Amino acid sequence: MEPIIIVLIILVVLVFIALIKTIQVIPQASAAIVERFGRYTRTLNAGLNIVVPFIDSIRNRIDLREQVVPFPPQPVITQDNLVVNIDTVIYYQVTDARAATYEVASYIQAIEQLTVTTLRNIIGGMDLERTLTSREEINAALRGVLDEATGKWGIRVNRVELKAIEPPTSIQDSMEKQMRADRDKRAAILQAEGVRQSEILRAEGEKQSAILRAEGEAKAAALRAEGEAQAIRTVFESIHAGDPDQKLLSYQYLQMLPKIAEGDANKLWIVPSEIGDALKGLGGAIGNFNPMGGGSSGTATATERREQPPLD
């Protein structure tokens, strides 16, 4: 009885294993390669799949999502014989699971070696300065070569990026010194331009100030001259309106003489020739003046006095 139970248990186990091998569940964005007796049969897509147990076998499961693979730094020689280390990052996607399995042994290693050789060919035709400033050009050229070469492997290279370009240490020091010198030069130029602009603005300000000051002084002088002219005109009109005689003018002239002589700087006083006429007019006025109201002049009195005979 026991051998029958053992046989039944073995049969149950075999049926269970057969069921497991018959039903294959493939995750989303994945594919599986099925071989029958070592020969490719078909590719299983995502979902529930049925295979013949113990006859069909799963050779390889491939992820169909976009993959990112960073490659280690690779030494590359530029056109001017300088060695630079370049880090690259590849974004690829498997489009044909069968070709990726049977057309190349290891597509990751193949892509890495193809990237290195292509990168050396591209960088070998550029000098260091162009290499450092032409990342987009290098990425486009590298992606075109890789996409064309990996198409038959069932691989599509979506993007290639240069993660870092590291020149030799001595070159880095020289570049830093050059950049520092350029920055100092630009700073000196900017400072000189600032000083020049400041001087120009100051000169323009002084010019405008001088112009405004001169215009103000001119207007003030014009106003003063106009005021003096108006005052002279008013005095002249007043004098003519009062109709002064020669005696009054002579008296006013004599009153102005002390004011003319005032001042510490007046070392020499020149008597005008008109002073004689003024004194004559003033003398005539005084001679004709009679404080007693008799109507006789001082000259007549003196004549009468001379005509009296002397006393004994």
Describe, in plain words, how this protein is organized in 3D.
The protein has helices spanning 2-22, 97-102, 107-123, 128-133, 135-150, 169-242, 246-261, 274-287, 298-307, and strands at 23-26, 30-36, 39-44, 47-50, 56-63, 67-77, 83-94, 155-166. It is α+β, with helices and mostly antiparallel strands and 312 residues long. Strands 3-2-5 form a three-stranded antiparallel β-sheet. Strand 6 and strand 7 (83-94) form a beta hairpin. Helix 3 (107-123) crosses helix 5 (135-150) and helix 7 (246-261) packs across helix 8 (274-287). The longest helix has 74 residues, at 169-242. The protein is rod-shaped and about 180 Å long. The termini are far apart. The model is unreliable at 289-312 (pLDDT under 50).
According to DSSP, the number of beta strands is 8
Structural class call reads alpha+beta
By DSSP (H or I, 4+ residues per run), the number of helices equals 9
Overall morphology: rod-shaped
- Measured between the Cα atoms of the first and last residue, the distance is 217 Å
Poorly predicted tracts of residues: 289-312
